[in-house]
Design a protein that fits this description.
The complex is a heterodimer.
Chain A lengths: L37 E10 L4 H11 L4 E8 L5 E10 L1 H13 L3 E6 L5 E11 L3 H10 L3 E5 L3 E8 L1 H11 L4 E6 L3 E3 L11
Antiparallel strand pairs in A: 1-3, 1-4, 2-3, 5-7, 5-8, 5-9, 6-7
Chain B lengths: L28 H11 L4 E4 L6 H7 L5 E4 L3 H15 L3 E5 L3 H16 L3 E7 L15 H5 L5 E4 L6 H13 L5 E7 H5 L23 H13 L3 E5 L1 H5 L3 H11 L3 E3 L14 E4 L6 H9 L2 E5 L5 H4 L10 E6 L13 E4 L2 H11 L7 H13 L14 H11 L5 E4 L3 H9 L8 E2 L10 H11 L5 E6 H6 L4 H6 L4 E7 L4 H10 L15 H8 L2 E5 L5 H10 L4 E6 L23 H6 L1
Parallel strand pairs in B: 1-2, 1-3, 3-4, 4-6, 5-6, 7-8, 7-10, 8-9, 10-11, 11-12, 13-14, 13-15, 15-16, 16-18, 17-18
The chains are: A alpha+beta, B alpha/beta.
Bound molecules: thiamine diphosphate.
Cofactor (chain B): Mg(2+); thiamine diphosphate
Organism (chain B): Haloarcula salinisoli
InterPro entries (chain B): Acetolactate_synth_lsu, AHAS_TPP, DHS-like_NAD/FAD-binding_dom, THDP-binding, Thiamin_PyroP_enz_cen_dom, Thiamin_PyroP_enz_TPP-bd_dom, TPP-bd_CS, TPP_enz
Chain lengths: 199, 588
């Protein structure tokens, strides 16, 4: 085999002491930096036009962001829609997700909501209709209500945090859960702060 | 010949005044599309006809825009991409719906990875058929969305021109890239009298041109205080027309300059501050410098893994100042201690003014020089036989003017063309980096030549890459483009074979091509000039003959099939631990 080049071999070379971690951050020998995943709630105002949802969701899958839920709906302005996106990522991943979202042309504004933001999810839970009173009692425990009943089934509506809904679904398991549908979180900042272009 | 417009001679002089610049009002969506391209300053269109795009072609009949019919849509998108690299303005390509559009995709994805300005216009089945799996229907917007800055679906004849104008402006704005407009046939055929407005970017698209002054000041202090500073100049420097600003900065502050591969040409490789380019097959000295620097001023680079190797070992001692127009590039792969968001040219000017002093780095420059002496970019020439590819590249480089444009395919030949040609000017290196697309060379040279008819254009190709788009030769012949194609023929997909020999115990599965055609004869069959080159002593004469021929020529250069590309940093490896020869790979 030809094609060699002159010069000292790999082990005879000067070599730096430093190191970076997998996130490309220079490691401080004293305090090694690593970022554990955390949950973030991103809220995005987008142009209300066909294809936006697929553009946003494709971005998340293409870049392998770990997405928990994504909800979308209209706003008071006919031309804009609002998305709430829950992701779980290490800090640099969350930062990237925000920047990449902002880059999409139909995206007007993106912000990460405060952990204290109002977060609500809706679930409809269909259970067996044998014990309607017991079902009602459990629904009340979770501030929910029966929204449909037949001889064979009762459908209950619950609104609240993800944890509350998880707990409710768990509690309803005693009644033979037939179907569950959940919306994923919708969220808004507490107080007067709103998400508008240019903040 | 390019299909120049055959303008009908019925210029009815208007009663009041005959204003030459006044154009006939648009009457269809298709005319509005063409008008929008004219307004945006388009010059060439590379494309292939078809049913769904036919109304737009029909409107082109009356326009001054030059259309170049390509032999394959992949060639249309690569030619447009190369046109964009060389001119700095979006290249334009057309394709029909379905297979036409899908054939464009490789070139669009290529442009996207390299941030090359390009606009693709695709025909689509009429709106009423969309979604019905109609003949030649594909979801072009859906397919291309992940590989464009934005893909538009035109829904109205009155606004289709504005869609095109916006897509054009967007392709050129901020971080450049490809855009696409999908044009349903009924929309382009539809009547409209709405003239497209001037091309403008969408209102949600904002670009920050200048970096924050305080941040610039901090970065400048850090750079001035560094002991071992290095500038890393990426493709963004060329895109921002910042090459001269970079030269001024580096020379004033006497800081060594490394380029990325797409940044080749942003700094003259014959200057003493140049360490040429770093990365997997970059120079030993560039890789040593990048491994040992304590302050890296990185401009217009996205820290691709072919550059960085493993991120844990990349510039491990360095504080990083990262200049980029795209905020999403900041700390994506390599954490930026000093992020400076803005246009490379403007930020370099800001930095220039903010530098408190010339850093005191004589020792460091000497160290870099030592590395240059220790790891020279040479190759083995035991005898004159067999022919060495590096020699062909080097000789060609010596024989041509500085502004000669070099295009390539993808593989070993691409690496030799980047290592052994001496680049001194921006926009003279036209290659497929991020996507690494074999077959890029033949059509790219066509786009490059039309973009710069007064500059010499040479394309170094591999036999494998050349075969992928060889049909493009017919276009070069028809247009009588003076391009010299050099096929560095090793009867193999050589780069794959190199990896098999290095990392797969020499198990050469599907990498050898002993059935390769005779490219000189193939060239003649297309109507080009063909040369066969085997001996080192014939190199100069053959190159001269090919250069002298006024039209496309192909040199089929039969090179040493055992020749491999070095230096080499194994994938994900440490840039400071490059192999200089085969057996170093085992040590790594
Ligand atoms: C379209 C495409 N297919 C496959 C590859 C994988 N690949 C990378 S380099 C290479 C070999 C290229 O061979 P050739 O064009 O003959 O050039 P050489 O390496 O021999 O100079 C291959 C197959 C690619 N980059 N692009």
């Amino acid at each position: 085999m030809t094609g060699g080049m002159p010069g000292p071999s790999p082990h005879d070379r000067m070599h730096p002491k430093g190191r970076r971690n997998k996130q490309g951050i220079r490691i401080d020998p004293e305090a090694e930096v690593t970022h554990e995943p955390r949950q973030a709630v991103l809220s995005a105002l987008v142009k209300h036009k066909p294809g936006v949802l697929s553009e946003v969701s494709a971005l998340f899958s293409r870049r392998q962001f770990n997405i928990e839920s994504l909800t979308v709906g209209p706003t008071v302005d006919d031309d804009t829609a609002r998305m709430t996106i829950l992701i779980e990522e290490p800090e640099p991943g969350i930062d990237q997700a925000k920047k990449q979202l902002r880059k999409l042309v139909p995206v007007i504004e993106v912000t990460e909501l405060d952990p204290t933001a109002v977060r609500r999810e809706l679930a409809l839970i269909k259970v067996g209709g044998e014990k309607p009173d017991d079902v009602n009692a459990v629904a009340e425990m979770y501030d929910g209500q029966a929204v449909d009943a037949s001889t064979d089934s009762v459908t209950v509506e619950i609104t609240g945090s993800k944890q509350k809904i998880d707990a409710a679904v768990e509690a309803f398991k005693q009644f033979d859960v037939q179907e569950v549908v959940r919306t994923g979180a919708a969220a808004l900042e507490r107080g007067p702060k709103t998400l508008e272009k240019h903040d | 010949m390019s299909e120049h417009a055959k303008v009908p001679a019925d210029e009815e002089a208007s009663e009041e005044e005959s204003d030459e610049s006044e154009q006939a009002p648009v009457t269809t969506g298709a005319q509005s599309v063409v008008r929008a391209l004219e307004n945006a300053g388009a010059e060439y269109i590379f494309g292939v006809q078809g049913g769904a795009i036919m109304p737009v072609y029909d409107a082109l009949y009356d326009s001054d825009l030059n259309h170049v019919t390509m032999a394959h849509e992949q060639g249309a998108s690569h030619a447009a991409d190369a046109y964009g690299i060389v001119t700095g303005k979006p290249g334009v390509c057309f394709a029909t719906s379905g297979p036409g559009a899908t054939n464009l995709v490789t070139g669009i994805a290529d442009a996207n990875m390299d941030s090359d300005p390009m606009i693709a216009l695709t025909g689509q089945v009429p709106t009423e058929f969309v979604g019905n799996d109609a003949f030649q229907e594909t979801d072009t917007v859906g397919i291309t969305q992940p590989v464009t800055k934005e893909s538009y679906f035109a829904a109205d004849s009155d606004t289709v021109g504005d869609n095109v104008g916006e897509a054009f402006a967007l392709a050129d704005a901020g971080r450049q890239g490809p855009t696409l407009v999908d044009l349903p046939k009924d929309i382009t055929q539809g009547e409209t009298d709405v003239e497209p407005s001037e091309p403008t970017t969408p209102d949600t698209y904002e670009v920050q041109e200048e970096a924050d002054d305080a941040a610039v000041q901090e970065a400048a202090e850090a750079l001035a205080a560094a002991d071992r500073p290095v500038i890393l100049s990426g493709g963004g420097v060329i895109k921002a027309d910042a090459s001269s600003a970079l030269r001024e900065f580096a020379m004033e502050y006497e800081i060594p300059v490394i380029t990325t591969m797409p940044g080749i040409g942003s700094f003259p490789e014959d200057h003493e501050l140049s360490l040429e380019w770093a990365g997997m097959h970059g120079t030993g000295y560039a890789n040593m410098a990048i491994s040992n620097t304590d302050c890296l001023l990185a401009i217009g680079t996205r820290f691709d893994d072919r550059l960085t190797g493993g991120v844990d070992s990349f510039a491990p001692d360095a504080e990083v100042i990262h200049v980029d127009i795209d905020p999403a590039e900041i700390s994506k792969n390599i954490y930026a201690d000093y992020p400076l968001i803005g246009d490379a040219r403007k930020v370099l000017r800001q930095l220039f003014d903010a530098m408190p002093r010339v850093p005191d780095v004589d020792e460091w420059r000497e160290q870099c020089q030592t590395w240059k002496d220790e790891y020279p970019m040479t190759y083995d020439t035991p005898d004159d036989e067999p022919l060495k590819p590096q020699y062909v590249v080097e000789k060609f480089s010596d024989m041509t003017p500085d502004d000669t444009i070099v295009c390539t395919g993808v593989g070993q030949h691409q690496m030799w063309a980047s290592q052994f040609w001496e680049y001194t000017e921006p926009r003279t290196w036209v290659s497929s980096h991020g996507l690494g697309t074999m077959g890029y060379g033949v059509p790219a040279a066509i786009g490059a030549k039309l973009a710069a008819p007064d500059q010499e254009v040479v394309c170094f190709d591999g036999d494998g890459s050349f075969l992928m788009t060889v049909q493009g030769l017919s276009v070069a012949v028809r247009e009588q483009l003076d391009i010299t194609y050099v096929v560095l023929n090793n009867e193999a997909v050589g780069m794959v074979r190199q990896w098999q020999d290095g990392f797969y115990e020499g198990r050469r599965m599907a990498s050898e091509y002993p059935w390769i055609p005779q490219f000189d004869k193939l060239a003649e069959a297309f109507g080009a000039r063909g040369f066969r080159l085997e001996a080192q002593e014939d190199v100069e004469e053959t190159i001269e003959a090919a250069r002298e021929y006024d039209g496309p020529s192909v040199i089929d250069a039969h090179i040493d099939p055992g020749e491999n590309v070095f230096p080499m940093v194994p994938s994900g490896g440490d840039n400071g631990r490059f192999a200089l020869q085969e057996d170093h790979l085992e040590e790594l």
